[in-house]
Description:
The chain is mainly beta. It is built from two helices and 13 strands, in the order αβββββββββββαββ. It folds into two domains: 86 residues; 70 residues, no CATH class. Strand 12 and strand 13 form a beta hairpin.
Amino acid sequence: MKHLFYIIIVSWALTGCESEPESFVKEYTVNHHLRPAQGFIPVMSLMVRSGDVSTWNNLFQSIEGFEFDWGYEYQLAVFVTEIDNPPADGSSLRFQLLEEISKTKVPDGTTFEIQLKRASSETNYVTDGTGEGPTLLGRIAVDCEDLCTDLENLLSTDQDVFGVFEHVDNEKIRLIQVRAN
C-alpha cells in the first residue's frame, strides 16, 4: 500500500509539473544579407542579433509572416514560443512576426563578405542549378562578371573560399572580390 501511495504522489507531481510552452516577445535586428550555414543540410540563414549584442547569429528557421528582401536591414518584434517535443532535426523554438518595426535600405556601395566554400566539410555553397549562372544555394543569383574564372578555379581547390559582394537588387548580388584561405 505504501508503494501505491508513492506511485500516486510521483505521478501527480510529474503531471502537475507539466507546464505550457514558454512564450516571449523579442526584438531582433536582421542583417541586410543572408549567409550560407551548415545545419542538417546547407541553408541560407538569416543573420540576427538582439539588444546590445554586436555579433550576428544564424537563425536557421524562418520567421513566420516575414518576407526578407536583400539589401535591407530590419527591426522586428517577434513572438517566440518553445515547442514541446520538437523533431530531432528541428528547432525547439517557433518564431512568428508580430511587427516589422523598420525596414531600412543599406547605402549604395555597401559591401559584405560571404563564405562560398567550407573546405573542412567539402561544402560548396555556390551552385549552378538554374543553368543561368552561379547562385548561392539556389536562393540568389551571383553576378561574377570578370571574376567567374577566378571563382571557378578557387572553388576547385581544397581551401576555404570567400567572396566580397555588393547588392544589385533583391534577386542578384555582384561578386567584387574572391579569395581563398
